[in-house]
Design brief:
13% strand; two-stranded antiparallel ribbon; 14 helices; single chain
Amino acid sequence: MKIGNIDLGRQPLFLAPMEDVTDASFRFICKEFGADVLYTEFVSSDGLIREAQKTLDKLRICEYERPIGIQIYGHLIDAMVEAAKMAEAAKPDFIDLNFGCPVHKIAHRGAGAGMLRTPDLMVEITRAIVQSVKCAVTVKTRLGWDEQTKIIVELSERLQDVGIAALTIHGRTRAQLYKGEADWTLIGAVKNNPRIHIPIIGNGDITSPEGAKAAFDRFGVDGVMMGRATFGRPYIFREIKHYLETGELMPELTVMERVSLAKKHFIKSVEVKGSRVGVLEMRRHLSCYFKGLPNFKEMRLALVTENDPLQVLVLLDRVAKLWG
């Protein structure tokens, strides 16, 4: 599979762009476990053109992260074009347009999945950006706004025709948010449409190696993207690759291995963002790394309320001692 001139190999695995999740420290960990393509957190076009520092910080990428895309969102053509140019200046491998985020404050402003209510505008924004930047442009979207407006088959043709290099489809409508099951039949319909010649990446409910293999085998997608399944389990990329190559499942990580991984991630977070922010932004991950451990409620509370980085490491050592 290729995006533009970038060869991603056969059956590449993508880390979904997620606000407050796919920061530099988490991308570092996912890359180590075999994620083929990374994305920054999604970036507001309005924030970029106002040069808000927190938004500008999201454009920072490292060479070891490549190939990596910067994803932007917005609902105004001029602002999205200007933001795309600013993103391109950060030298990503491609720019991704977020037409799929279902969060109310974004979608009901007409951005993210809100664009599915104005497909003509979505196509025009895409056309304008493709014509304004030199790097490859990709799109991530959903099946449609709701059950009555699943427009993805026609929409994919229109987006392809204005020049996108790849399309990622989340198998739900905006109305579904993240509820119910993802409908992969429509993702397959896009991939198997004889008019479609760009790579199609499937997204939604891939939580296991078996699920990833089924997505490739049953629906023919070129790549698979994972988001929520990576929470506390960035090693899912390694598990899937092993299964695709051998047909065998890897053994689950031991508690000791999970502690070692959590510590590595935590140290990277503090290194990248400083003690205060690094600790705060690791809390969501620390609560996930040890999901399923018995009688863990008190320790989980301690992990997500401790502010001292050294004491967090002490708590992680205690996890290893008590549950390892």
